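Example A, followed by Example B.
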Amino acid sequence: MFALIIDVLDVIASHENHSSDIVSMQSALDALQTFEFAFLLHLMKLVLDITNALSQNLQGSGQDIINAISLITTAKKQLQMTRDQGWDILLNIASSFCVKHDIEIPNMDDFYIVRGNSKSRVSKITNEHHHRIDVFYTIFDMQIQELNSHLNSSDSFPNFDKKKILRMAKLYPNNFDDLAIEALACELDTFMANVHDDVRLSNMMGLGELSRKLVQTKKHLHFPNIHLLLKLALISSKTATVESVFSVMKFIKTKLRNKISDEFSNDTIVTYFEIDLFKSLSNNDIMLHLQNMRPC
């Protein structure tokens, strides 16, 4: 929405009657259309993407201390990794943003110009030193320091292919639009780092067990897009089973028995659907079991 915001502010500034308001609006426009603002904007988004799952957990009404500790460890690892490896990526993203919106990009080797209420002055440090050392590293060091007293963990989750997962999500356009795909991409990074640190999610076999574990550990509340994609994947893989259940219902829900309760209907469907199991039971065993449940 950056371009729209600039347009709106420009229109407001051009229609103001008071000179002081025009000056204030123009100052805001000048500040917004600088590399400094673009860089800080994307740096803030990067930090918030990493800490979002932890923030949601700590602000939730039903706080889970085990998940909170696990998410703190995850956030700390991601912050450290981004601090060590993310400078070039962030610089390229901010520069691309500036090119798109016709914002001047300073030469990183030139001396940094300090701007403020007083007259601009040239500092004794380069643009790269200011943005990388004074801002980028400092922000991440402050964040890491806040979490630095918590536990270290070992990795216990296998590798995954993020591109394939996002490609799969695009197969469900009604559930995952472009915005949801972007949110899923950020969520996947945090999720994979998080499950590495949680022994409760180790040695899982298949998507079904992963889905159950997410609910048991309440992680489905913190990673809703991943949980939704898991459910869609499980439904897709069980289509034949679901169709078999519905085909059985025509033997149960007949015109003479169209008002049976859900519980009785479910129990009856099980006996049809698990027919091989029930064939292994004798009628006498079933009668004895029922007789022992309550007096006839």
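Example B, a separate protein, is given below in the same form.
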Amino acid sequence: MSGDYRVTGSLHFSNAGGVYTANRISDDLPVVLKEARPLAGLDANGIDAVTRLHHEWKTLRALSGVTGVPQAYELFTAWEHHFLAMQRMPGIPLGRWLAKHHPLTRRAYTAADLARYTRRVLQIIDQVSTLLSTVHDRGWVFGDLHPRNLLVNEQDRISLVDFEQASPIGDNARSALGAPGFAAPRERTGRASDEYALAALRLWLFFPLNVVLTLDPSKLSHYVEIIAQRFPLPTSYAEQILRELGPPHPPPAALMALERPEPDWPAVRHSIAQAIQLAATPQRTDRLFPGDIETFRSGGPASVAVPPESCTHCTSPVSVGSRSWRTGW
């Protein structure tokens, strides 16, 4: 560390680097320090964490003065690691806010509770929409809108954080990183990708199952119908979600088979078996399927598949390629 900051806590860790709370020693100013490690955190475009951090510094400088966007204070290097010091924005991540306030997380709720929550969400959505429009007017696309990049304070005021995926609006770029359920389809680039993510946020704040839509997009209309029936929403709210997120893409063949009145079970079984085979890595001797680090500590995630010589409770043999494995629970 440069010595100009005193770290007080950690917010997030990844292979790209950490995010820390700190105070600037010269004046005790609260800041957030974002770390980038060289040649780490490569994205789909082969860009590493350091390049993204320098890009975020440039973006925040261009957006300086926008309410709800953190001010960038300093970009510096300590040892081999790069750090961006920025304004510490007030509030908690939007996901924690939802868990705390969503009325359906409680066993007992009233129509008044639903109406109160709806009013608060509509105010939050209006703020996010206005903030995105301001960013667009400054010539930038945010590119990575999802609940973890939105903070809400005690007055329900919104801040937008993590600008490393932002891009000039004229580039019509597509983010190399994205959150499932919020990342736009490939054909939606530039400003359209932010509009897609905003519509996903409209749905998520009432019915936070967006990730399921990545597996079965046809559920979109059902989800929208549920929130329209349960919450006192204006008709235009549901229409905006359907317009931006639909029409749904054709679901996978196995899901189509399952949704028929008489499911095509042979097709479903074939699809499941094919997926299992494609996920297997029989060329490895330490585990058959990709999984958590616990694979190498306790015999596999829930002992789904481990080499027979290391398994004392396995039952059914499985053959993939030229190797034979045993599975058990």
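On Example B: Confidence is low (pLDDT under 50) at residues 305-316, 324-329.
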